[in-house]
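chain below, 307 aa
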Amino acid sequence: MSEQFGKVLVIDDNAVIIRLASLLLAKKGHSVQTANNGSDGIAFAKSFKPHVILLDVMMPEIDGYEVCRCLKADAETKDIPIIILTSRAEIIDKVKGLELGAADYVQKPFDHEELQARVATQVKMKILWDDLQEKNKLLEELVKKDGLTNLYNHRYFHDRMVEEFNRCKRYGLSVSCVFMDIDFFKKINDTYGHQAGDAILQKLAEIILANIRDVDIAARYGGEEFALILPHTSIENAAKFSERVRSSVDETDFQFDGNSIKVTVSLGVASFPVNDPKTHTDIIRFADEALYAAKTAGRNRVELYRK
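prediction:
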């Protein structure tokens, strides 16, 4: 593995140790931040976000063990590897640091090459760990998304609907559900081909994303059907939102392979508490029934659920 440079935080109340460690690590290409007490060290760990921390055990006020305990208890800093610096030779002191979550230890006075090597190892491990975490986050996000439209998928929509409905029911808040369907989509596919249909689905996803808030959830429910969760939104405001989307689609000139394709959508809206759904499945069913009403009433329209 090639040498990697990182950010190192040195926490030690000894000015000589700080200066020596800083020089040795800077010589290897690392960026170094220092703190001469535990309180500042904890604060710098959050702001500097180092790849590794060199931490002295014996410090006044807050010793290294307590600093280690605090850093490992905080979500912001718990994954930063800590190398304990100790002048003590007793095994029990080294074991205590490792039990608190330290990744390694170096005994003072330290060998220059040993310190550089141990820091380099932890920097590499932290960079690999951070890269793995980013890839895991990306994978988790991809699992939630529809591959064609990049909207959320059917399963994620249902999971979030359960959460939002239960939360709004518990605290007496409003939440609306909107179902949207492309009118005569089969005819579009039959006339212009499935690639044209895919292009229209992608364009509709863009229109939806341009109209929703950060807190809203937009999903491709299946085929040409979309579903949205609008937290803290009354049925009146959900209706206004739906009409805005419908109008935007109606006014958009969908182009594919030199063809101008007319596209319209129908939307159904249901809301808690006004429609009195008892469960999350009720509000989904109500929105779907309102969508069906929009279809039977002539399409290219918004219908609210009515008992």
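The first strand starts at residue 7 and ends at 11. The mean pLDDT is 95.
thats it, cya
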